[in-house]
Amino acid sequence: MITSGDGKFKVWLEEKKIGDDLLYILGGGERSHIGGIVFCEPNKEPQIIRLAGHYDDIVLKPIAETACKKYGTKVVVIGGIHIDNATKDDIKKLVENCRELEKCI
Q1: What is the number of structural domains in the chain?
Q2: Block means of pLDDT (10 residues each) for the chain, length 105 residues?
Q3: Considering only Cβ atoms within 10 Å of each terminal Cβ, which end of the chain, N or C, has fewer?
């Protein structure tokens, strides 16, 4: 598991191998949850499931695309990050911390 950020802005990413394929679970903030799912296959457009009222696919998709391109395999990324009454600055910090996780893939 890798992490980025501190306090309520801390996010984490866990990797699981399923045969030759990869599953990533993303969480963090004040409460982790499942807000979206992104599935990537090499040379295909990502498939995105956004649960009602959630926008977690915004950070899930780049992680899925990066891992799929780097490892040339199918990748699923699932999860979500939540902070109560998040401001635009709070969301910006969380997104930046997720980008740091993506760099570590």
Answers
A1: 1
A2: 96 98 97 97 97 95 98 98 95 96 94
A3: N
Closest by alpha carbon to 44, among 16, 20, 75? 75
Looking up residue 76, the CATH number of its domain turns out to be 3.30.230.100
What is the token pair recorded at 96? 């930046």
Q: Which two tokens stand for residue 102?
A: 């993506």
Domain that holds residue 9: 2-103
Total-model pTM: 0.94
Q: Furthest-apart CA pair in the chain: how many Å?
A: 40
Other C-beta atoms lying within 10 Å of the C-beta of residue 61: 16
Residue 30 near residue 84, CB atoms below 8 Å = yes
The amino acid present at 69, given as its one-letter code, is: K
Q: What is the pLDDT of residue 9?
A: 97
Q: What is the DSSP letter of 75?
A: E
